[in-house]
Backbone:
């Protein structure tokens, strides 16, 4: 069976244990920084799933998500947002509204358990 391709798009430092964990669970993983050439990289990588680091104040991240979903070559790829949860300014209902507005397929709050991330990946892939 062919290994599934996971692309992690990160605009902050990422813990190295996420790609290592996913590789141990039989996924091919590539990590890129959020940059101007990210769409080109996604097309070339042929990802089966994208993990996108998101911040609610970062409209650039949400635009990237929308750009992926309107691109004919990419729109079929599930996107999982990793979101830093801040209880003082975000609640679950607000996140659900934002999730639909930005066309993400799923999300997980940071910090998260690796097994929970794996569960979400397997559900979406």
Residues:
């Amino acid at each position: 069976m062919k290994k599934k391709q996971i692309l992690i798009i990160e605009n902050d430092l990422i813990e190295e244990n996420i790609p290592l964990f996913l590789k141990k669970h039989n996924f091919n993983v590539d990590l890129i920084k959020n940059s101007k050439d990210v769409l080109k990289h996604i097309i070339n990588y042929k990802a089966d799933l994208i993990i996108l680091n998101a911040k609610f104040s970062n409209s650039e991240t949400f635009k990237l998500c929308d750009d992926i979903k309107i691109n004919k070559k990419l729109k079929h790829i599930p996107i999982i947002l990793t979101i830093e949860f801040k209880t003082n300014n975000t609640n679950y209902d607000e996140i659900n509204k934002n999730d639909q507005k930005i066309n993400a397929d799923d999300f997980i709050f940071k910090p998260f358990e690796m097994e929970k991330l794996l569960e979400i990946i397997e559900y979406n892939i």
Remarks:
- The helical segments are 17-24, 38-45, 59-70, 92-101, 114-124.
